[in-house]
Amino acid sequence: MTYVIIGAGPAGVTAADTLRKADPKADIVMIGSEPEPPYSRMAIPYVLTGLIAEEGTYLRKEEGHYDKNAIQYRQGEAESIDPKNKVVKLKGTDDQPYSKLLIATGASPVKPPIDGLDLKGVHHCWTLEDCRNIMKFADKGADVVLMGAGFIGCIIMEALAERGVNLTVVEALDRMVPRMMNEAAGNMVKAWCEKQNVNVHTSTKVTKLEASKDPEDTLVVDLDNGKQIPAHLVVVATGVKSNIDFVDGAGLKTDQGILVDECMRTSVDDIYAAGDCAQGPDFSTGGWAVHAVQPTAVDHGRIAGLNMAGKSAPFKGSLNMNVLDTVGLISASFGKWDGIEGGDHAEVIDTENFKYMRLEFDGDKIIGALSLGRTDQIGVLRGLIQTEIALGPWKERLMENPHLIADAYVACSQQ
Amino acid sequence: MQKSLSIDPDKCTGCLQCELACSYDNENAFNPAKSRIKIFTFHDKGRFVPYTCTQCYEAWCMHACPVDAITLDKGTGAKIVHDNLCVGCKVCTIACPFGTINYNADTGKVIKCDLCEGEPECAKACPTDAITYVDANWTGLEKMRAWAEKTDAGQASA
After folding, report:
1. Which one of A314, A321, A375 has the shortest CB-CB distance to B103?
2. How many structural domains compose chain B?
3. How far apart (Å, rounded) are the C-alpha atoms in residues A156 and A240?
4. Which CA distances in Å does A105 have to A27, A92, A112, A264?
5. Buried (b) or exposed (e) across A68-80, using 16+ Cβ within 10 A?
6. Three-state SS sequence of A166-224
7. Which chain B residues contact residue A332 at CB under 8 A?
8. What part of B 11-70 touches A (C-beta under 8 Å)?
9. Which residue of B has its CA nearest to A62?
10. How far apart are CA B23 and CA B42, in angstroms?
């Protein structure tokens, strides 16, 4: 038995470890396309702030982890899959045969169709190499423009702000973090960021980038409101897209990502998919979605690993969730934070103190939540949603004071 | 035999000695807000419920950590946060469905119960034996574990 995993991010590494536990004797080969040992993209902002060195991003810290667990780590980029002969074709090196294959190739940042994005001084913040490039430009006082105030954009924003750059954020939609926040919360984040001296333009598009000679080697960023912003560095964080182009021709069903069933199996025998490249089961909707977040990638990796090793482990679906620190204001979103038609909601807004809590209900169950300015026991929101607790009398109490989430969870689960 | 914290809410009087002992031992401050064990008070029922990490087997916090900063202490079974590795990303705080791993803004790291290396201060401080440290098979934490499985995404059948 040879398990082959394409991709060495959180989904791939979790699957490899899960496979090793479940099947001590099988061969496991993990293929990564970057020169560094498997690392976490999520940790890159903390390299930018200087909190950790590059080694701090590595997914496994134990010395010789992969060797010790007989996980063969191969460098290479998958070019195509031949399911008939059960091999993965790799660019410029030998094919890799497999008995069972996991595709965990992640996602890549997208570039919007804007002139000038290939100029010097324009970078994504996705790989460790990007991180090194950004550090060359993002010195204290440097003018930096961040395109995109989504989840990833905001994580990078925090790191750039901490480096002391003069930061401007440009977001095309009407609020910050539009995919994890409603208007009230998104605007609170914006007000907070502005208070921390970050310039935020929402409902604004970058129309083009031009090279500037004043000073030498800088850029001018044109906005659709007529403004021009000088920049030493432009960081592009305008969304990501699943890395699935290379599976064309292998017969796998795809949509936004590779379509999988509740066991992370693709439509082709002995091929599984996990992480940002997989459109997996979504707990909240009962449908299928690419979440592109760390907890989902790890869920996928474990479920795929167990099923590949022959353990029956069907999956009720991942709960989409995020936690974000925007220059010190901490927010979290869970599940159907935007609610359902006919469902009740409870909301408290404390604009002055930047605190916000909103719960969404379906009958007497919580199905989604949004919170700002609170970290204590925030995880119970996951518990409340995913165990589908019938709240009984606690629903009324939460409607009056949504901050009683932990009390409600303890009362309902520890009766 | 590994030991676990055993919690019997019926014996709890809400005196908060456990919270004080925990915060003092771990954070050098008598400050219940920094305690890793929390007493929930339900006035309507006159009930107090001590609540902390169950050290669950397939710990969500540990799996969700992107930088391997939470590991298993094989001696005690506790899941331990390594401050030198934790980057403060807070993913564990949303992944844990019990809300028992929390961000400490003062240090920029997360904190959770580590069973005090096998000598939990909360159990020592509890005057009524509502919190005891006993053989793992006998603890009321099984109740929490049962709930944990309901949260789970697939390993229950594995």
Report:
1. A375
2. 1
3. 14
4. 20, 18, 22, 14
5. ebebebbebebeb
6. EEEEECCCCCCCCCCCCHHHHHHHHHHHHHCCCEEECCCCEEEEEEECCCCCEEEEEEC
7. 93-94
8. 38, 40, 42, 49, 51, 60, 63-64, 66-69
9. B68
10. 22
Find the CATH number of the domain harbouring B100: 3.30.70.20
Whether the CB of A414 is below 8 Å from some CB of chain B: the reply is yes
**pLDDT tens figures, B71-101:** 999 999 999 999 999 999 999 999 999 999 9
Q: What was the pLDDT predicted at A213? A: 87
Local confidence band at B26 (pLDDT 50, 70, 90 cut-offs) = very high
The secondary structure of residue A31, as a DSSP letter, is E
Contact A318, A283 (CB under 8 A): yes
Task: Take residue A266 and report the two structure tokens written for it.
Answer: 């693709």
Give the domain A2-108+240-308 fold: FAD/NAD(P)-binding domain (3.50.50)
Return the CATH number of the domain spanning residue range A336-413: 3.30.390
Q: For residue A135, give the amino acid letter.
A: M
Per CATH, A2-108+240-308 and A336-413 having the same topology is answered no
Element (H, E) at A134: helix A128-137
Collect all residues with Cβ–Cβ distance below 8 Å to B46 and sequence separation of at least 6.
none
Rounded CA gap, B62 and B46, in Å? 35
* Average pLDDT for chain A: 96
Give residues 16 to 45 of A whose Cβ lies within 8 Å of B.
40, 42-43
Q: Which CATH superfamily is domain A122-236 in?
A: FAD/NAD(P)-binding domain (3.50.50.60)
HSE-up (13 A, CA, CB side) for residue A223: 21
- ipTM of this complex: 0.95
| pLDDT reported for residue A216 | 83
Is B51 within 8 Å of A414 when comparing Cβ atoms?
yes
Query: And the tokens for A189?
Result: 């984040």
Averaged pLDDT for residues A39-61: 97
Q: In this complex, is the C-beta atom of B91 within 8 Å of any C-beta atom belonging to chain A?
A: yes
Domain boundaries, chain A: 2-108+240-308, 122-236, 336-413
> Is residue A265 a contact partner of residue A283, using CB atoms and an 8 Å limit?
no
List the single residue in A with minimal CA-CA distance to B47: A411
pLDDT of residue B154: 47
Mutate to test the interface with A, among B48, B51, B65, B89 (most CBs of A within 10 A): B89
Q: Is pLDDT at A172 greater than 50 in this prediction?
A: yes
Q: Which tokens hold the place of A232?
A: 């030493």
d(CA A44, CA A186): 24
Domain hosting B59: range is: 3-157
